[in-house]
Amino acid sequence: MRIAFFGTKPYDTIWFQKLNEEKYHNEIKFLHPRLTEDTVSLANGFDAVCTFVNDKMDKEVLEKLNDYQIKLLLLRCAGYNNVDVKAAKKLGITILRVPAYSPEAVAEHAITLALTANRRIPRAYSKVRDNDFSLSGLIGVNLHKKIAGVVGTGKIGVAMVHILKGFGMKVLAYDIHENPELKELVTYVSFDELLEHSDLISLHCPLTKETHHMICKKTIEKMKPDVILVNTSRGGLVNTEDLIEGIKHGKFYGVGLDVFEEENGLVFEDHSEDLLEHTTVARLLSFPNVIVTSHQGFLTKEALRAIAETSLENVRAFEMKEPLKNIVE
Ligand code: NAD
Q1: Helix 103-118 / helix 155-166 crossing angle, nearest 10 deg
Q2: How many helices (H) and strands (E) does the chain have?
Q3: Largest CA distance in the chain
Q4: pLDDT tens column, 179-206
Q5: Which residues lie with the beta carbon below 6 Å from any ligand 1 atom?
Q6: Tens digit of pLDDT for each residue in 211-221?
Q7: What is the pLDDT of residue 288?
Q8: Given a cut of 90, is residue 267 above it in pLDDT?
Q9: Is the pLDDT of residue 173 over 90?
């Protein structure tokens, strides 16, 4: 199969190239631009496109793909909030994704963000490098015996619960479907109760109409003072303006964000020579108790290999007309 691979980064090619050469033998064209209405013409002449979280697959782009007779959309990620699934279905385009590649990779990044923000690691690191061995501004809080709130107890949420239990935390959970696997480990509560009691809140649910801006002025007001908030899920879960207001008013002990609403056009690219135009992002980056990373939760060696393996297996199953276990419907 001829695959147009959009938004290629050097870390993408490592496993896709190796496994494809060894076993799958597709013709993959690694393209640098991300998929948008301006770049979709690059897909002309291919059978499938392979995309990631910041590619744009709205009705307009999908219609163009359909004009090029592309019938397979290969998402090399779990989330599909950037795809107009209804439009794809209407056009007869099959969407395959990688539902799980390494939940632990994302959960481990979530706890990294919590600890890094809490123990003021960026500041500590710069101070010591500057021969400032004083401890001012570096006070953290213990997690041991505190209450963690996990929102969304699917694959990543479960991995996060295990980590938090290892810290000796009591874990509250909120999900629209309770996970029986966690029966002994967490107490399921309402979203409001979770907000009210948690010292650390970590978001692990998908971005949907229901979860959009679930963290906003109203819900931030319900949180405990000095709460630590972590979002490794999707930027749209948090209203950034409201978050900034909360941070300004001292609500949060720490905030760790691997994703943020305004990330498109920023993440995965080097903008170090540019002036940062986005005032919201600039404000977010200005707080000493906030740590932002560039959507790297998935970025471990193990996860990259698993993403390539599952994606290439998805192509094979599609070509062989086998049942498609990773289809998005
Ligand atoms: P999953 O499908 O296994 O679990 C999601 C859970 O959220 C499910 O238990 C579901 O019932 C729950 N949920 C759905 N709607 C909800 C709602 N309205 N309120 C509360 N809970 C709700 O997904 P996963 O593999 O654990 O991934 C979770 C999210 O993590 C993905 O949707 C994706 O956005 C994000 N993610 C981020 C990265 C990264 O690099 N930062 C990598 C992979 C996934």
Answers
A1: 50
A2: 11, 12
A3: 64
A4: 999 999 999 999 999 999 999 999 999 9
A5: 78-79, 100, 103, 106, 151-157, 174-177, 204-208, 210-211, 232-234, 258-259, 295, 297-298
A6: 999 999 999 99
A7: 94
A8: no
A9: yes
Annotated catalytic residues are: 234, 263, 295
Structural Rg of the chain based on CA atoms: 21
pLDDT tens, position by position, 77-121: 998 999 999 999 999 999 999 999 999 999 999 999 999 999 999
C-alpha separations of 209 from 30, 57, 86, 206, 235 in Å:
33, 17, 14, 10, 13
* 72 beta partners: 48, 94
DSSP secondary structure, 196-244, as one string: HH-SEEEE-S---TTTTT-BSHHHHHHSPTTEEEEE-S-GGGB-HHHHH
Question: How far is ligand 1, taken at its centre, from the CA of residue 234, in Å?
Answer: 9
